[in-house]
Each structure stands twice: as C-alpha cells, then as structure tokens.
Queue: 4 jobs
Job 1
Amino acid sequence: MRRKGLASMAVQTVATETPAATGTPATVDLGPASGLSCRECGTRFPLGPIFACAECFGPLEVAYDLPLGDPEALRERIEAGPANIWRYAPLLPVPADVADKPNLNPGWTKLVKADNLARELGVEQGKLFVKDDSGNPTHSFKDRVVAQALEAARAFGFTTLSCSSTGNLAGAVGAAAARAGFRSCVFIPHDLEQGKVVMAAVYGGELVGIEGNYDDVNRFCSELIGDPLGEGWGFVNVNLRPYYGEGSKTLAYEICEQLGWELPDQLVIPIASGSQLTKIDKGLKELIALGLVADKPYKIFGAQAEGCSPVSAAFKAGHDVVRPQKPDTIAKSLAIGNPADGPYVLDIARRTGGAVEDVNDEQVVDAIKLLARTEGIFAETAGGVTVGVTKKLIEAGLIDPALTTVVLNTGDGLKTLDAVAETSQATATIKPSLEAFRSAGLAG
Ligand SMILES: *Cc1c(COP(=O)(O)O)cnc(C)c1O
C-alpha cells in the first residue's frame, strides 16, 4: 500500500490543535487516508477528530491516496481478503493490519436474488436483489460505520466510544466497544422499541435515555463534545463522523463485487441523516475511478417514512434545502427530522436521475410482510420503508422493472417486533390431538 509522509506530519498538528483528542499518539496510521477535505469549499485538513470545516463550517470527508494501479491486481487482492469489510481495507481509512485487531468484523452480508418479490412487483426475473444487512453482528448496517469509527478512535487515542442514536447505532457502539476493550456511553431517545433498548444495554456499557427525540439527543451530544465532561470521548457520528461515514462505502463495494464487479442500474436506500446514501454514491464513484467496475449510469433512490420525510418533501417541492420536521413514524431508526446530509441526498438523487419517495406506516407494515412472505427475510421497519418505496416507484414508472435493482434492508425485524406483532399471530391454538387439528381445517 502506498502511504504519504503527510500522514505522520498531519497528526502532530492535530495533537496541538484539538485538545479534545487527549492522548493522541504522535503518528496516526489510517492506511490510504491522507487527510480530510471540506465537502463545500475543498479546504484540506490533517487527519484528526474534527468534522466541520474551519473556513466555512461545511462537513469534512476523508481524502485518500488510493492505490491507483492495475485494477485486476487490486480485484484479486480484494477477492483473496477476509469475508468481511476488511477485504476493502486498501480503500478505507484503516491501518493495513486492521483485520488482526479486536473488532466485530461486519459486512459481506448476503445479496439475495429476490425472484419471488420480483414476481409480485412486476420486475423481470433475475433483476431484483435485496442487500440484507440484518446479517451483521448486531443485526443492522450500523456495524459497518462503527467499525470504521472505532479504528479512528484507536488512532486518536480515545478510550470512550459514544454516539447519539436512533437505536441501532447504540447497540453497534456498545458491542464494538465491548469487543475492543473501550468504555462506552451512548445516548438514545427514551421511548425507543424494547428490542433496541435491550440490545444497546446488554453489552454492558452506559446507556442514557434522553427525554426528547433524536434531534434533541444529537444537540445534547454536540454540547457534550464542547464540554470538559465529554473530553477524551470519540462520538462515532459527531467528532468521528468523517471516518464513520466511510463504512457505508463498503455496501457499494460489496453490492458491485457480488454482482460480478458490475454496477447495479438502480439502488433504493433508506435515509435517516442521509450519510449512508451519500457514501454509497461515493463508493460507487471510487470503484469506477479505480477501474474496478465499468462506468455506466446508475440511479439512486432515497426512501423515507411519511411521518419523517423532510428530504422526500424537499425533493418533491423542488427545493435545495431541507425543512426540518418533527418525526412521528414507526420507522424510528430513520426518524431524524433534521438530516445533516439532506441537501447532498437531494443533489445525488437529482444528478443520477433517481428520486426520493416516502410511504406511510401502514405501507411499511405491508412491505415488511411482503418481503417476509416472498423471500423469507424479516426486515425491521427501515426495510419496510425501502421495499414499500420500491413498490411505489415501480408503480409510478420511476424504477424500470427491466433493469437491475438493489433494495437495501438495513436492519432486523426482531428489533421492531411491535410493528407487526398485532397482525402476526398463531393461525390457531388447539389441544394436542389429531381431532382438534382436523377441526381447525389446516390439514393438507
Ligand atoms: C442508521 C440507519 C440507516 C441510515 O442512516 P443514515 O443516517 O441515513 O446513514 C438506515 N437503516 C437503519 C436500520 C439504520 O439504523
């Protein structure tokens, strides 16, 4: 792997400029990552636990010294790698020996060819796929982003991992911290689903319920970072956000590799803060730039729940800015009323010829059951949102049923049982006798 001398220089500056990073080692090895750059004005910064541009307050992104070279050799190297996200270590802000460190090794989840669902939705056979990220260690896509943030936290010398969470992130942080020997203290809205609360607590870290919604939790965490109370803490989605976001690129890499190193034509991606969607786009563009896939147009579709659809509303109104909403939906993992990456999502949907659409809670439940009954995949409400939106976009003629479509399921239905519990009950309850079973009329 090529590495710039810049990396070590960069970090010495960080140690003096960012007092919050107490204990930052003199050198930081984050593999091919060469610095941070502002998404708005392009200003470069050294690698460090910073997330906003000092010039214009725009969001910072990881910049790379990517291994440009023979794509065939890189492809072979990736294919020979472990069956988790670390097969893409040459393209991520992680040290080369990352696979040897204690972490949860998420990723390489199934890309399911969903022919039964395709038949129901009127999509050509062999063209519809579900990328099922419920197969990750804590049963949501969040393990991918946390694994990246953990490496950044290690590199910057943090000893406590933290986050503001809509539920899944808290569990992913708790588990990753437990495995890596970090302390964790995570913050969630107090009224989350039981499955999310239990999963966030069971790994033994501190779990704090905040009386408010996610946007209140996030605001609180931003205050905590600026306070001595939060000193030495790595907030995976705040001061480590640039690194965190890179984890979502692995979804793009895996989808293309699993399609035989080809870009899909259409992707349907859920939107909470919008980070995942923007980074999947970044990952696809990198694969093209590296020559790992042939360049062709692809369309990105964003999916929201009607009860929290600020990006969808802006898309439909033709606005460039996203007006915050107060969330009220069963899709709590997506319930961010003021999404940080909203404007970038709008830009990507428009640039690629995609769209942003939403479905109501009833449609979410129907879609969860549709996916379960056709493909044997039990999705959480966020998966109901993407499948429901896919159905709606096919019916509206915006998704072409003759082209390859990948729909993301980002979480496990066991965490949001309430959504379907009422309508998913035993068909019959009977005495343990053949007579009783015959009477129930279920034989044959
Ligand atoms: C966090 C989350 C997302 C996407 O979140 P972004 O903030 O948009 O990156 C999608 N699905 C589930 C289940 C999640 O927990």
Job 2
Amino acid sequence: MKNNSLYEIQGLDLRDVCEQFGTPLYVYDADVIKQKFNQFRNAFKGVDHRIMFAVKSCTNISIMKYMRFLGAGIDTVSVPEIKMGLRAGFKPNEIVFTPNVVEFSEIKEAVALGVPVNIENIQNLEAFGQEFNDQYPVCIRLNPNMLSEIESGRASFLDFTSINKEHYQDVGEERVAAWHNQSKFGISLIEFDKVMEIVNRYKIKINGLHLHSSHVILNKEVFAKGVQTIFEIAKQFEHLEYVDLGGGIMVKHHPDDKVIELDDIGRILQKEYEIFCTSLGRKIKIWFEPGRFLMSEAGYLLTKAVVLKTNGFINFVGTNTGFNHLLRPMMYDAYHDIVNISNFTGDSEKYNIVGNLCEIDNLGTERSLDKVRQDDILMIKNAGAYGFSMSSNYNTRPKPAEVLIINSKAELIRKRENFEDLIRNQVELEF
Ligand SMILES: *Cc1c(COP(=O)(O)O)cnc(C)c1O
C-alpha cells in the first residue's frame, strides 16, 4: 500500500529530488514554514507583536529571505549572522542581536551596524554605559532563576513563592536539568539592584526587556508567571518599547511528546498584556524569537541506506550520514522519527539506524521501519531546526546540500561541499 504523503512534498517525489541532488540531503518545505509562521501569528494576534526568526536554528540566506518575505525579522547571536541578515535584505531595525557572554567589541560592532542590542551580563552593561551612556537605547536580558530559587528555598525576587515544583512535573527531569544548566544566560534577578545602579549612573535608556528560557515553555502556569514577572519589572523602565519573550517553543518529535498549545499561551499573554498596557497608559510591542517552532517540522534529512548488517541481536541500517550532519540524536538524545520512503510493503522490522562516523553514531535505535533494502531512502524528520546549522566536517566528510521546495519546485539553496571546500583553509607546510 502506498502512502504518497510519506514521500511527496508539494507533488514532488522526494526520491526523485534525491536522484537529482544526491544524498544525504536537507530538504525544507516552504509551505510548512509558511503554515507555522501563520499559526504563530494567529496565536498571538491579541498582542501587538513581531516575529524575529532565530536564524541560528537554520542559517541559510534563502531561508532568511523567505522569512523576510513572510514578514519576519531575525534574531541573531553573532556578528556574521547580523551581516548575513543585512545581506538578505533586512533593515538594521528588523534584526535583534542577542548574544551570550561575548566580548564587548562584538556589541560595539552590532551598534555600529545599527541593530537593536540585547545585553545579558553586568560586565557588558557597565561597558555599554561607559561607551554609549544615553546615546543608544538597549535591551536587557533577564534570567528569573525560577528553578534555582525554588530549589534553594531562598527568598525569591518578586513573587515566585506561588510557583512550586509541581509545575515542573510534566516537564521531565532532563528538560528541567537542561533549563537549570541554561542559567549562564541573562542577568540573574539576584543582580537586579546592580542593573538599576548602572542604568541610573549612565542614564542608559532601556527600551526592551528580554526573557528567553529555551526548552521551558511547556507549561502554561510557568509561562504566565514568567510573563507577569517581566511585566512587573518592566514598569520601572520609562523608555520601554518592547518586551521580548524569546523562543523556546517546543515541537512534537514523538507522538507521546507533550507540547504547549500556542493558542493557550496566546490567550494568557493577551490578558497580561492588556493589564500591563492599561497600567502603563500606552502600548508596547511584544517580540518573539522562534526558531525551532518555525523550522523543525519543515525540514527533513534524507539519507541512503548503504549497508545492512547484523550482530546477531540487532539489525543495523548503515546510512551515508551521521552526527556530523545531524547532531541532535547524539548530543541531546533527541528523538527523530525515521521512515523508509522507498518501501511501503508494510512488513516492518526493527532496526538501529546508524551513521557512518567512526564513533558511536546512532540516529535512531530500536525503530520499526518498513523493510529496509540497500539503497532505500530514509527520511529523518524534525531536521529543519538545529540540523544543518549544527553540522560539522568531522571525519573529513563534506556537508550535505540544502534544497527548498517552493511553488512545487525543488530549489538548491546550498551546494554540497566537495574536497576543495574541505581543504581550502588549511595551510600546508613542507618537510
Ligand atoms: C536559540 C535562541 C532562540 C531560538 O530558540 P528556539 O528554541 O529555536 O525557538 C531564541 N532566542 C535566543 C536568544 C536564542 O538564543
């Protein structure tokens, strides 16, 4: 039995696309990107918002241009990302720079390029004050430390006492730990007095407040609390123009995954936003920086089954890709659904799908797939975000090509690397 939806995008047979461009191949579906963008837009239609696509999730200039076409701005975390955004046609005020622990010189470069800048540590805030005083409005990134407050049992800033551990039950230990480890991001509220002291001393104009806790927006109560907290803090900044709620919206990888309904948090936000704007007496903007939400489900890594082998217990499918091209399974233990798009017999078998690097290199273990034969094409899902952008040349293998399927055409948006690309920057000594 054939299931066209498995291997067709916009009427194109992905196996033909692989024939044309080779494997491994990253393929993005412009229709899905657009659909996700519109879903995001609709969920937050109750608030005056901007969507700043987090380009680190899928750093390709054609994807940037498509996001611009849809009406997004971009969120950048390095100066080259800003420059790429400018080249893609974004105006400086359509780009936000949200780096983590960077040397102050990078912030100066961003200011020179005229983009809104986000400061996330006391040291750079002080340097910023010295350099620019009240001449360049700036946004500060806060870290509400909710979890550490709860765990340490310490008196909390504002009213975190009503948050308790039950709120994290459905988040799962690993994710909690992940969030906990993220605490290098942002200015901890513990240091908030210092922020105010520096802001007042240099008369820095704070025009934005930023809160991004990756992987954490899984729970409505936590989201509501985060929003209330940031609005409460925001009241102290007379030059405030926007509150940036970052990204971090999870998407389903596995049918059992719990994800938050965007419409639900849209409603929560609208309520808090209206209360806040009324008390402020004017409207502010809400910025978002989704990466994963827009791109994850829009992208696939297509790979060829090249070697089938067994060790007596496990059937292995050896592919022509690996964690050099898709790092998430090995790095985060992420689940990525894998399907065989070349065989639809329905007689499935259990496999470990492995990469070809000379390391432990699992793409998926104990997966049921329609019987895999040599040269079958496997589709690895949820590869649109943090797929290509985290790829490397480990084992001296070229990075895959990228293709965008748009208007029922497969457009090449990045060439496959070749041997010359791999050696280009090496300096050869003679002995
Ligand atoms: C990585 C990042 C994002 C995007 O996060 P997603 O989980 O992909 O939505 C947004 N904002 C900042 C500051 C980031 O570092």
Job 3
Amino acid sequence: MPRPILATIDRRHLRHNLARLRQFTGDAKVWAVVKADAYGHGIERVFEALRSTEGFALLDLTEAERVRALGWRGPILLLEGCFEARDLELCSRLDLWHVVHCTEQIEMLAAHKSARQQRVFLKLNSGMNRLGFAPERYRAAWVRLQALPQVDDICHSTHFSDADGPPGIAAQMAVFDRITADLPGERCLSNSAAALRHVQSLQGRSDWVRPGVALYGGAPDHLASDAGAWDLRPAMSLHSRLVATQELRAGDTVGYGSTFAAEQPLRIGVVACGYADGYPRHAPTGTPVLVEGQRCRLLGRVSMDLITVDLSTAPQAGIGSEVTLWGQAAAGPCLPIDEVAAAAGTIGYELMCALAPRVPVQVLDDL
Ligand SMILES: *Cc1c(COP(=O)(O)O)cnc(C)c1O
C-alpha cells in the first residue's frame, strides 16, 4: 500500500467559487489568477473548471505556454510583464497581454519588431510601492506607449495593498482616479479581497478583476472573515491516515525536542504527514487537525514525515483512521486552510503553494 497521504482538488468547488465571485463582481471580466501553478493546485488540474473565465493571469512564460497547450485561445495576462526583450517574441507568438510597470519595459517594446500589435496593461503605483509608475510619471508613460506602433490597446491597472484590512482601498482609488480619470481605456483593479470586500466602491469602475485565492476557496481576509462566511469552498484538501497510536503516561513527552509533555494519561495518534509534504513545520501544539471528522489538536513538533495528534476528542480512532490536515473531510466537516495557516503564523496562500511534489493528487469532479 502506498503511504496514505493524498491531496484532492475538487473542480466542483472551483466552479462554485468562480460563480460565487461573479456575484460580487457583476459584469466585470475575470482574470482567473493561476500564477504559482494555480496556487499549488496545478494549472492542468484547474483549467477545465475555470475555463468559463474571460482570461488567465500568471507571471511565468512557461505557465503561459502550458495554458495555450491546453487549448485556451482567449486572453492571457502576464502580471509582471516581460523580464527581458526576447519575452516579447513569445508575447507575439502566443498572443499574451502584458503588464508594463517600468520604463525599461517601454524601451523593450519600442525596440520590438512584430507584425502583431501588443495589448498592454499599464500599471500605476498608487501606494503599494512594489510595481508600477509613480503617479507623476504615469501619464507620460501612457503618452509614450500610446504613440508606439507596437501597441494596440492600453488598459489602466493598479494593485491594492490593504483591500483585506481596515485601511481599505479609498486612498489608492483616489490616486488612481486622479491620474486616469480622463484617459481612455479599460480599467483593471481588484484582487480577491477588493472584489469581495469593496463591492460598493468598485461598482462599475473595474472592467477587469483579478481574483486568485478566493477561486481556490481561501479567504483573502482571514480573521476578519472566513471562507465559510464568504461561501467559498476549499478546492484543495489534504488527507492522510493514522499509522500508529501511543498511550502516554503522565510526564511522557512527544517528538523531537520533547516540546510536549502529557500532564495526564493521553492517547495520541501518529499521522503520515510532515513538513516534507508541505505541512507547515512551525504549526504549534494546538493547531487543529480533523480525525474522522472530529477536531483534534496537534501535539509537539512537526517532523519531516509525521505529526502527532491528541485523540481525546476522537476516542474511537485507530490505525487507518482518516485524517484531514485541511479542507473537506470525507465525514463532512471542513477545516479551513486559513485556520491551519493562522495557527502556524502564515496565510492559506502559502500552504496551498507549498504542497510538496511527493504528495499524490486526485482530481474530483462530477462530470
Ligand atoms: C496574485 C495577484 C492577484 C491575486 O491576488 P489574490 O489575493 O490571490 O486574489 C491579483 N493581482 C496581482 C497583480 C497579483 O499579483
């Protein structure tokens, strides 16, 4: 028997999440963000479920080639644009739309020889201070691009730093409006957090939205809210089984560093899952784990291939019992990936992206 760990990717949940997002974004066209191999889910695995999107957005040229190889003829957007001049040849060949966020990228375009005109997404740095033209330089960049024969159409875009928290998007929207108000062209705003939380302020103002994590069933604003409250369903679940149990006496310790000591007799389960599977090594004692659908707590240190859990809340469990590290348990309940991530001091995004290559993956679908 193979080691009993398994990740499942549920296409029904991906379809549900895309439909759910559209309830918030109205008529806006959707870029389904599939960077980082679809947030660790695998581009090839999610493609069918997301193909009712208007476009796919990603960073990596080889990922763009993979989307084209799946037969996608619609728009693909390179979220960081070209990294070097010859990337533009691929943009022409594969018909990729691309972000232009710096002067160097304009120079590359100006020097590019191609029969096909390029569709570009000019990026304004409205306060995030990562990528984009400063407000006072944006219009000059637009004028310059506009004049290039290589350029077909220019869409205005920016990225919000605080759509998930109290600062919100108002300050950045004010900058965006001030700079772009009288310029022609479409607008592209909104990650998942903005799309879900700022429906009113974005109504009719964003021709394109760029949701990522919400498609995969993660809450972009965990702690303030959660996936269940947004009616998002986990696309990825990580399952395993108990491979051993131990009866601890008072004073016995568990695992490397003996960081957990039993205060009283305690039955524990040993799960075939560790940090080499992508489970977060920093998850502390108390991190939730489902055993046969019941919430248990992690005990002691996460090791490479195994973790240990307190079976007090799942007394019937034994070797072979089903364990859900995150996502949807067969028994029904769901353990939000964001909750596991928060316990480990990180975010659901990171756990999804870090699913290890050694974990077998099964795709669930009802078709
Ligand atoms: C990753 C990314 C997104 C998607 O963000 P989520 O928080 O996952 O919705 C949107 N826009 C840009 C520019 C990105 O890099």
Job 4
Amino acid sequence: MNHTSTIIERPSLWQTLLRQEDGPLTSDLLLQPGRFGLGQVPAKQAPDATTAMICGFCSTGCSLTVHLKNGEAINLTPTVDYPVNVGMACPKGWDALTVLKADDRATAPLVRDANGRQRAVDWPTALKLFCERMKDIQRRHGPESVAFLGTGQIATEEMALLGSLAKFGMGMIHGDGNTRQCMATAVVAYKQSFGFDAPPYTYDDFEQSDVIVLVGANLCIAHPIMWQRICRNPHQPQIIVVDPRKTETAMAATLHLPLRPKSDLVLFYGLAHLLIRDGWIDGEFIANHTDGFEEFQRHVAKYTPERVAETTGIDSPTLERVARAIHEGRRVSFWWTMGVNQSYEGVRTAQSLINLALMTGNLGRPGTGANSITGQCNAMGSRLFSNTTNLLGGHDFQNAEHRQKVARILDIPVASIPNRPSWAYDQIIEGILSEKIRGLWVVATNPAHSWINQHMLRDVFSRLNFLVVQDMYTTTETAQMADLLLPAAAWGEKEGTLINSERRIGLIKKVARAPGQSLADFSIFRLIAENWGCGEMFRRWTSPEAVFQLLKELSRGQPCDITGIADYRMLDERGGVQWPFAEQSPDPAPQRRLFADGRFYHPDGKARFMFEAPTEMPEAPSTDFPLLLLTGRGTASQWHTQTRTSKSAVLRQLYPPDVYVEINPVDARKSGIRPNDRVVVESQRGKLAATAFVTHSVQPGQVFVPMHYEAVNRLTLAHFDPYSRQPSYKNCAVRVRPVENHDRE
Ligand SMILES: Nc1nc2c(c(=O)[nH]1)N[C@H]1C(S)=C(S)[C@@H](COP(=O)(O)OP(=O)(O)OC[C@H]3O[C@@H](n4cnc5c(=O)[nH]c(N)nc54)[C@H](O)[C@@H]3O)O[C@H]1N2
Ligand SMILES: Nc1nc2c(c(=O)[nH]1)N[C@H]1C(S)=C(S)[C@@H](COP(=O)(O)OP(=O)(O)OC[C@H]3O[C@@H](n4cnc5c(=O)[nH]c(N)nc54)[C@H](O)[C@@H]3O)O[C@H]1N2
Ligand code: SF4
Ligand SMILES: [Mo]
C-alpha cells in the first residue's frame, strides 16, 4: 500500500520534463553576451541581458545575439564579433524568432481516431500508443520492420540520442536522414578520396583565395553570408561560377560557365586534361601526398577541348581561360553544393573537383581546398553523430573494434549495436513498398513535400501500419498524414550544439518557452526510452550537455576528435570550436583548415584520385517532354518546404507566394506563352500549374522551379547516385504549355 502511494506521489518523467519547460529559460551558464576576442562586450548576467546562439536555418552557422527581457527573447541582432558572420545575417536569421509563434504550432500529441481525424491526447496516452504499436509491429514482423527518418536540423545531442535509442534501445536496423537528400554525395566522395568525411576548409578561405570556383552553388541565395565573406576578399579574386542557370551568383561572378546540365564531369576531366597538357600541375604534391595519378592522367587524356565543348557547350577558348586562371592563381579554392551532390553521378563529379585541387596542390594552404558546402544548420552533426550511415563519432557499424569501443564508452552490450549499415532513404521507401518496413518514425523532416517523386512517396507512406511524425507544426504535408504526431519544441526553445559547414561546433540555447505540451526532441526521446523499457541504457543521457560529454569520448582518436572542448561554456566563450580539437592539443586558432601537413586519412596518409567514365542521363529530354527541369532554392527568404519561413509576414513579402516556372523566351515563344501566363508543367509522373516567369536566366531547353512549393516533387524522377544514393533532383524531362480548360487548377 505504502509502496503504491510513493509511486503515485513521484512525478513521472513527462511531468518533470513539462515542468522544466515552464521553469527558467536560458541557464546562467549560457547567459554570455558573446565575447569572442574580436570585440569586447561587457558580460552582464542579468535577466535583461543578451545571449548569443547559432542560427537554426542554414549551415553557415551565423551567431545571433538574442535580446532578453526577464530572461525571455524579445528580439535579436546578428552577433558583431563572431568569426563566422561578423555582424551580418540574412532575412531568415533576422526573423528566426517570429516563426516560433504560429497558430499551427503543435501543442499536444495528436492521434488519428477511427474517423480519420487527428485529436489531441496527453503524453502518457501518446507514449503508450507509440510503444504498443511499434512493439506490436516488431513482434509480428521482426525488429527491422520499424525504421526512422531523421534530419540535419536538430541538435547533435538530439540526433545522437535518436539514433542510439532507435538502434541500440529499440532494435531497429534501418534509419536514415534528410541529409541523404543533401550531403550523402560529399560524404562518400570525401571518404573515398581523403579516407574520412572531412571538408577541409575554414570560411577565412573565402577571403584568402585569388581564384574561387563555385560549382552548382548559388551562394547569393542559399548561403548569403558566405557570399558576403567573398565580398570581403581583398585580393580581387576571380570568381568562376559553373551553373547551367545565370543565377544571382553567376551574375556577380567574373566568369560564368553556363554548361549543359550534368556535363560537369566532362568539363572537369577536360580541365584536368589541359592542366596536364601544359604541365600546370604540382608534381611534388602529387608524388608525396596522392595515389593513382598515372591512371587518372591516362583517363583524362581522352577529354580534349573539342570533346568537352561538344558535351558541355563551353567552348575551347573559355576552357583554356579557366585552366590558365587555375594555373596562375596562387590560392585556388573549389566549392560545390547541390548542383554537384544532387546528381546521378554526383560522387564522381565531386571527386573530379577534389582531383583538380590535388593535382594543383591546392589543399591545406590558406585560400585553397576542395570544399563541399553543407546545407542545413546541423548537416555536419548528422554526418558524424546521427548513428545512421556511420556508427556514432564517424565509426563503422561493420568494424568489430569500433562496435566494442562504442559499447564500452556508452556502457551498453556490444550485441545491441547492429553489425551492418542501415538501408539508405530510398531503400527504406522500397522496404515499405515490399512490406518489410511497416512502422516509420519521421523526425524534423517533411518528406511528403521534399522527397523525389512525391506521388510515389505519398502512396508508399499511406501503406504504413503506423506513421509517427515529430514536428513543431501540425500542418506540414507529412504531419497531416501521421497516425501519431509528437509536438516538438523548436530552435530557440531548447539547448544543444550544431556543427556548421566549416566544422565549427556552436551552441543553441533556450530563450523562449515551447508552446502547450510540446517538448524538446531531446525530452521526447528520453520519454520514449523510458516507456519502451530501455531507460536504463540511457541513464547517463540526462541532459544535452551530459550527452555532449559522451560524444566527446566517442570522438577520441577519430579525425573528428573533440576531446579538447571542455564543456558548453568553452564553446560559448570561444565563438565555437572547429573539429578536430583533441585534448592537450595547442589552443585552437579561431580559423583552422585541415591537411596543412599534407597527411590524409587513408592508412598510407595519401589522398586518392577517383574517376570513372560519365554515364547517360536518365530520362533525357525527348520529343514529348522536350525541356529539362532544374530545381533548387528560389530566394534567401524561403526555407525548404516553407513550414517555418511562411510563418513570417516579413519574409512572405520577400518571395512570390505561388509557384512559378522560369522559362527562356525562346521556349516560351514556341509554346505561345507570355510573361505571367498561367501554365502547366508536366512530367511523366505528374503536373503542376504555375505562373510563367519568362527570363534569360535559364537557357533554352531548360526550366527552373524552386523547391519551396509543394508541387515541385510531383514532377521529379526518383533516380540516384549509385554510390551515395543521393536523389538526382536537378534533372528530369518535362513540357510546359498554357493552362487549358480541362486543367482543373
Ligand atoms: N534561402 C535558402 N537557403 C538555403 C536553403 C533554403 O531552402 N533556402 N537550403 C539549405 C540547404 S539544406 C542546402 S542543401 C543548400 C543548397 O544550396 P545550393 O546548392 O546552392 O542551392 P540549389 O539552388 O539547390 O542548387 C544550386 C545550383 O545548382 C544548379 N545546378 C543544377 N544542375 C546543375 C548541374 O548539372 N551542374 C551544375 N554545375 N549546377 C547545376 C542550379 O541551377 C542551382 O543554381 O542551401 C541551404 N541554404
Ligand atoms: N525538387 C527538389 N527537392 C529537394 C531539394 C531540391 O533541391 N529540389 N533539396 C533537398 C534538400 S538539399 C533538402 S536538405 C531537403 C529538405 O527537406 P525537408 O527536411 O523535408 O525540409 P524542411 O522544410 O526543412 O523540413 C524540416 C521539418 O522539420 C520541422 N522542424 C523544424 N525544426 C524542428 C525541430 O527542432 N524539431 C522537430 N521535431 N521538427 C522541426 C519543420 O517544421 C519541417 O516540417 O529537401 C530536398 N528536396
Ligand atoms: S545565412 Fe544561414 S545561418 Fe546565417 S542568418 Fe541566414 S539562415 Fe541563418
Ligand atoms: Mo540540403
């Protein structure tokens, strides 16, 4: 009797966590106004002080100074003395607090009832349902029949807990993230070329280069503050933009190469050919630090300027001019983003850029590098710590020693760590189709909008026995499909770390209260662990900072070793710290790049030349579908599937509300389309109605639709890079025609 009453009196974990939500905001420890050595701001530890934290949108990782009243955020300004953004922010950053306050914030768990309506329940009911349904599926169909899809947009500590809970605690094998849509290509390219997934640069390189080559990267729109860093470059750099479209970035470049879509591989092999022909290579670097150059030399011998011109549309004199620029540049840097990664031959294309840097010795020195720019605020955290593609800390699921190490550090049975890698995102989707996967848990991503070939995805999701979506809003395309919606706190309402494009680890802080019963993802994962019955396994994962200490230990001895970072306070005081920073290493400089010593991560210390013959474009334009569809970012004020940015009245003023298609005047004329006409864009898989934006920014034969509008992925074709399994979002065949009577809009 006595025993029972103590149980009743003790608040359960969910009550404690909810109570914590109502407790004080930013802890004293984190009330630092930001003093990063670039300027001095007096430390004032009062509730009306300011506190600096990393922006939760893109991977640039700007610091925002949040102004507090009674400990609560009332406004923000870009942090003046932070080494990343030095006082600048883009519109999304400026309005990051507004998007937290929206009518469609998820404030309670929602369960779909017998009539198909989602209705609010309390946490104990939601947790019970989650565990019962998932366990039931696993009991009938095996532990692998449940999978998860994560994200590059929650804190590192959260993604580590999700990946560990799912795989070690709940017995899942398969879990991937939206980073597959985004960074998978760069990951595989770096691993094969350098021996570890390691983007080598620091943003200072933007300011140190004298030749900057931007490939499939529209910095002005997608990474505006990185573009600002280029604008601060005092060396009057040549800026060469390789993009089929005349983007905002291409317009500002010193040279734009409007190549045919997906002909990059031929272009860069052709450049390598010219550099070798003219002896413009760094023989010493090649001999001492690389492997496979002779074979590469033989391979590119075929890529004559004539052949390159025929395939890419870039003529020989222009190609010669670029080769000369690379030769004459003392500090040449190559940067790429989705125009490279999102391709059916993305890995080899990324490596064709890495090869150019290697053969010209443009690595490890200021202003150089083969530099993949990441996308989401914590894509880099996901690459190292999400426990999806890699075992925690950049380890390998298939390596027995790695499993032992992780088991020892986490104090869990080694048998609970899967000894095989997860299926990739597309394989998980296939797995649902073939009924091998029947339960899915989607966290902080919106696949029903963002995944390639949307009709297929929605059909596939509707076949699931149980779909759980964990999001901050109830109205996302995916949340609307959920059998169970778990309400999440957002950036600004929780603590943790993010890792930016240049490997800098920075802090996010709690400066606002999450609405209703919504909880930080971290708390939701802890609740599920407890309710699942594996809480004991995670007894040391009590807070984000406690997990950070575990992650440090997991990184020990790895290329991404961060054992030298004492704690959150150190991150706060230093303006973030780039990995690696191992214990006992000298005090880190504010800007650090990799490979200064010419040693790569393969056992022999050498980088590899990787190459392969180009492959045919799947679904090239045809008589029926004569145009090639390019997709990507539309404006600096729109973020992905627009769940967040559409909530800000200011941001909404800065982009067209409805979907539009950029079409060249030549193609418009052929189809009788005038500016601002309503048109239908259709592929073999679906169609959308859009406004025609007749413009020379796209070449004849190509059209562009921004990814922010829900309909775009009705058109795209599900095809993938064979090594990274990243979707090739930037090519499929379409036609455009005026809207006709039979089109119901
Ligand atoms: N405002 C804003 N900023 C963002 C985001 C956002 O949604 N909104 N998202 C973030 C994320 S997650 C990411 S991944 C990044 C993406 O950043 P970016 O990769 O810069 O953006 P995209 O517009 O997807 O693609 C870049 C360019 O690739 C070009 N391209 C298409 N096909 C080819 C090709 O075959 N060859 C070459 N060379 N280029 C090609 C397109 O024309 C496009 O201009 O942006 C991040 N920043
Ligand atoms: N056609 C086409 N499609 C593309 C691309 C393209 O270029 N062309 N680009 C691809 C790329 S690079 C990317 S990265 C993807 C992005 O695709 P998604 O990941 O699907 O896009 P987001 O809108 O960022 O979705 C994030 C979701 O997480 C929710 N959320 C935000 N913060 C939190 C949080 O703290 N906790 C929880 N639980 N939820 C949160 C948001 O409300 C939103 O629903 O799109 C891909 N799709
Ligand atoms: S550039 Fe990226 S990190 Fe900086 S303020 Fe804009 S969205 Fe935030
Ligand atoms: Mo992305």
